[in-house]
Amino acid sequence: MLDKLSEIEKTALESLAHVRDETSLESWRVAHLGRSSPLMTWFSDLGDLSKDERPSAGQAANRVKSSLESAMQQRQIEIKSAVLARSLEEEKLDVTLPGRSIQRGRLHPSTQQLRRVLSILADMGFQVYLSPEVETDEMNFQLLNFPPHHPAREMQDSLYLEAAGRGENPILLRTHTSPGQIRAMREFAATNPTQPPPIRIALPGMCFRHEQITARTEIQFNQVEGLVVGEHITFADLKGTLTDFAHRMFGQQARTRFRASYFPFTEPSAEMDMECFVCGGKGCPVCKQSGWLEILGCGMVHPLVLQNGGYDPRRYTGYAWGMGPERQLMLRYKIEDIRYFWGNDVRFLEQF
Amino acid sequence: MKLPIGWLKDFIKIDGLSVEDIARMLTLAGLEVEEIIYAGLPLPKSKVAATDSESKHEFKTSGIGWDKDKIVVGEIYSVDPHPNADRLVLCDLFDGIQQHVVLTGAPNLFEYKGRGKLAKSIKVAYAREAATLYDGHAQGRQLMTLRRTKIRGVESYSMACSEKELGISDEHEGIILLDADAPVGTPLADYMGDAVLDIAILPNMARCASVLGVARELAALTGRKLIQPRIQLKTSGSPVKESVTIKVNEPELNPRFVLGFIRDVEIKPSPYQVQRRLKLAGMRPINCIVDASNYAMLELGQPLHAFDYDVLTDRAGRSVQIKISTRRARAGEQLTTLDGVSRKFNESHVLVCDSKGPLSIAGIMGGAVSEVYDASNKNLDVVNPEDTQMHTEDNQQVIDPKSRQGKASQRIRSTSNVLLEGAAWNFINIRRTAKEHNLPSEASFRFSRGVHPAMAEVGVRRGLQLMAEWSGGKVAPGLVDEYPLKPKNPTVQVSPTDVKRLLGIDLKVGEIARLLSRLEFKCVLTKSAVRVTAPDHRMDIGEGLVGLADVLEEVARVYGYDRIPETRMADKLPPQIGNPIFEWEEHLRDILVAVGFQEVVGYRLTSIERERRVLSPGSRQDPDYAVIANPTTPERSVLRRSLTASVLEALEKNINFRETISLFEIGPIFEPVKNKPPVERSMLAMVLSGRREHTSWDVKDLPWLDFFDLKGRIELILSALRFTPISYADIDTAGFLHPGKSAEVKVGGKTVAVFGEVHPLVKAAYDLSEAPVMAAEFDLQALRSIPSVYGIEPVPDFPAIYEDIALILDESIPASTVESLILEGGGGSVTHARLFDVYQGEQIGLGKKSLAYSLTYQAADRTLTDAEAADIRNAIVKKLEQAVGARLRS
Ligand SMILES: [Zn+2]
Known about the structure:
The structure holds two protein chains of two kinds.
Chain A: H1 2-16, H2 22-33, H3 38-44, H4 53-90, H5 109-123, E1 127-128, E2 134-136, H6 137-140, E3 171-173, H7 179-191, E4 199-208, E5 220-230, H8 235-250, E6 256-263, E7 266-275, E8 292-301, H9 303-308, E9 317-323, H10 325-333, H11 340-343, H12 346-349
Chain B: E1 2-4, H1 5-8, H2 19-28, E2 32-40, H3 45-48, E3 61-65, E4 71-81, E5 89-94, E6 99-104, E7 117-127, E8 132-134, E9 143-145, E10 149-151, E11 154-156, E12 159-160, H4 163-166, H5 188-192, E13 194-200, H6 211-222, E14 244-248, E15 256-263, H7 272-280, H8 288-300, E16 304-308, H9 309-315, E17 322-328, E18 334-336, E19 342-344, E20 350-354, E21 357-361, E22 365-366, E23 418-424, H10 427-436, H11 442-447, H12 454-471, E24 474-475, E25 480-482, E26 491-494, H13 496-503, H14 509-517, E27 522-525, E28 530-533, H15 544-559, H16 580-594, E29 598-599, E30 605-606, H17 608-615, E31 638-639, H18 643-654, E32 660-673, E33 676-690, H19 707-720, E34 726-729, E35 737-747, E36 750-758, H20 760-765, E37 773-779, H21 780-784, E38 801-810, H22 815-826, E39 830-839, E40 848-857, H23 866-884, E41 887-888
Parallel strand pairs in B: 2-3, 14-17, 29-32
Antiparallel strand pairs in B: 1-13, 2-13, 4-5, 4-7, 5-6, 7-12, 8-9, 10-11, 15-23, 15-24, 15-25, 16-23, 17-20, 18-19, 20-21, 21-22, 26-28, 27-28, 30-31, 32-33, 33-37, 34-35, 35-36, 36-37, 38-40, 38-41, 39-40
Helix pairs in contact in B: 7-8, 8-12, 13-15, 22-23
The structure holds zinc ion.
């Protein structure tokens, strides 16, 4: 009797070994665990056995049944994973086909650079001050200590507007954001004329020069100026602040140097150079072989400018500086044609 | 300014300092060295070994060093013909060690050919075999090494050098003929090796536009002693004052006028060393008289002008005493200047005149008639010092000597008696005059930046000294010196407190005085301050507070900017007011970028023609503009009035590069105000054109972006700005937009923008593709004035019921009306109504349309039942039926 049972089990397991897919597995189930399978027949034949034999025979049959069932389950898992493996194999993409793009928006590189600059300055307590792009000669030059016909004016050739009857005070496109210094000082001073508050502002904006539009020269460019006025502001503070700024802007390892220069609206005036980040100071075409890059012009606010702004130069001192975001970008990205900036070619703009 | 180091050594000992050390110190002190050009002195090691990657370069460097072993002073005893070539000669040369036969084709040796042993040997720059030189025949400057060769059967291994070969100038016509006292056999580098610093002179450093000026700076910076020029004149004959008088009519314009007189000069070339220095400094040697005035100017900074005395006596009717005067020109007065140009003047110009009329334009250029004349030079009239043109960045004009051939001077005799002028002029007047007549020169460069009147006398004396030395002339005793307006050198009081307050450093009274006296300020010490008086060569020091700032700058410069510490500000923080307008605009930029727009920045300057395409397509009704009086190009001649024109130009430029383009610009437009600055209005302009999505290898034939694509983006932007309620309406005057496909945007009833498809005429005016173009224009001042609405809708806790309904109604009824009726009819239970289909067709009848909505029913406090939902729907349908005659589509 029991021999027959182990024969049934053996035959079923041998047959299961040949099963390769879900369909044949189902056939196998019908054949070996189905109602008319030998095993089930065997169960139904149990009744023919004696009362003593029945429990042990029943137990044996149940063992075979669960053995076959678990073998089937095992087989089912194997078949499923084989099927999955086959389909994973078959569903391989050409991953080198191009991805589908969406429209991405970007800020103009000058805006991006302006933001970098202004966010560092904001950390240092400088608030943004905006002023008009078209100014009078008085605001753009005279109040900043550029008298009419002064040689320093040649450094800043201007674009004038047609306007009659204005004598020595024509209208021009501002050549720098510095008229904003006068406007800001006057605005601040007006809040408390006897004791004007301290000032710490950044003046960003578009400026203009009478230039041909070439790879090297442009008629418009952005500038960011900084202005600090207070009762205890020194040239040493100027050096410290601008060196801090350079470290934030160009990295903590950036080396700076200050050399004497001339601007009518500051005195002493200086030029801040930074060790060339292209060649590390060894000399290259970007730094014109000098190892240094001119980053900004700066100086202590000229006493006449303070006075014109409503700040008593005997009591207040201050410093100011100016720099060009486009120039910084040109240095950083080795851009050799300044016309890219207002050319608005997306093939340029999308690289930022 | 080009400054030869060799010349600098006349005024300061530079032992122990390299050329680069000097250049660095000057650069840091405000005399920026833009380039170092070596002409004999050894180049710094790092420049020689270009492979040494560790070497630190500091300056743009060019030029050549002369090998001391291979390039020496040689001496030629005879010049013999070449056996096989007429145009070559063989020189018998001694180089201090041995005799050589040197082959050359230099034309300036031909006159000695075949004369046998020369009575006076000729000193030359001799290069031995294997010397490295510039190739004299090559274009530009190319190095070559001398090698043994045979030229027409004669062996050659060395040469007598031209200036080009040694890097002194570009001249290769003849070889250098050194002065007779050149020491034979001495390395040429030791005898005349040099290096030239090309220095940018800033407007406040005009006093340094001279060798002495730079030497004085260097002396101050190094603490070395300045070797002051000592001018002692040997005089003879009758004093100057018997030959000439001066009258100054406008002391404000001409504070001082000095004349010296030298008799019996011989017009001949200057010594070679003088010529070399002039060339290195960028000036052309002419003859010893002209060279002397140029040399004195380069050395001391005082321009001089030489007159032919005999011409003036002729003009004065052989009168012994010449009457010189300076005055404003009379309107229409004329003078032919020595460049051969007849020039007309007005009353703003100042002239130097004699009794007969104008002789020169004060401080700028002399007249042809009285210039120093060299009768032996047939082709080239002598050039006066004031007219020798210089190359600087701001002036390009150079007088071509050839163009001056055969001009005005009809004189037979060379100049033999010279009146030498040294004057002081008003720098602003000189600047204007030089600009008006387009006459930039070495003289006007200096005068237009200010030369101290004290220098006039020193300059004339130095000029006379050099003329006497080089021309053999005899200096007349004394000077005629008219000095009607003596400047008072300003005196300023500086205290340690001032220094601390402005510079942040602690200096004692004595230290301040020491620093300033190095620059020749006269210092008087008191207990708490120094009283300093500016020296006689400075025009840049002011009075009072300005003077104090001027002096403190000098303290800082001489002390050294690099020694001033770097500190963090200890001052109190200003009031924190931020900049809401700026911050708002930046926020708007971020929103635009987030909805996929690329920012562009166009020119503020444009042309009326460019903008006409947007502002008045097909007509010429242009608005008024703020017009540039001096445009650099007609393309950029007015301030823009349309920001849309700017973004459309950007679209036009990129139309072929991308299939979808969405651009925006934020910036001002300018509304003109007569004779006043224009009003600047901040605008936002957007354009959108191309495919709705990017095509890819399996997604093709996508639809064009249209009105509703732009509208969808505008909705996103306005919701990001938290604006509500927003409405859209037709516009009456569409302007640059298609009248049927455009709308205005209102927030709370206030119009903030117009947008839509651009008008076909506008589109046709640009070079665009078939894709329709959408554009929007926002007035940012209007937009900014709208308050954002803060607060949120709570996220519902209970499930919603979704239902779709389709309505048939008259096609004239706007969708927005239907939507508001749905929301109204739903009485607060409809939280969302999304239009998902619009249909028109025969099925529903002519003049009708079907709008299908997906509705969301929701209660905040419970789950709605199906029965409640049915009630809501019925209420909506009823409302729509009553209000616009809509019926449910079954
Ligand atoms: Zn570099």
